[in-house]
Sequence to fold (132 residues):
Amino acid sequence: MNNNELINLATAAKEKSYSPYSSFRVGAALLTKDGKVYQGANIENAAYGVTMCAERIAVFTAKLEGETEFSAIAITSDSKDYIPPCGSCRQVLLELCGEEIDVLITNGIGEVKIFKLKDLLPFSFGDKNLNG
Ligand code: THU
Fold:
């Protein structure tokens, strides 16, 4: 699975977005170390605060399937601008996927920026803080 294939799967997932309030569709595709992909799309709610982001749907689905080892997540939207993961998603990705995963952030004109998750959420809170 190369980066373009993972991005294409995120774009395909975006088609399943339920976003009647923002009309902002987001798709995500999370790649495990052994090559499986879990997709997600944002699901909104009239009580806006319980909306769920595409990335977390992908991560939670993978977690339910028992996945523990991940290598990358790709994120897409319809915007011409880059779509970085929100702060809540960064926190969940860090805890469930690890700080070393690659985060593929795309824009609407086919460009990609790749970050290590640890660079998107430095000096983070985690289980290490609870046990220290
Ligand atoms: N959204 C995501 O799915 N992922 C992010 O990282 C940022 C925001 C969604 C939530 C909401 O449905 C819409 O984008 C607008 O905020």
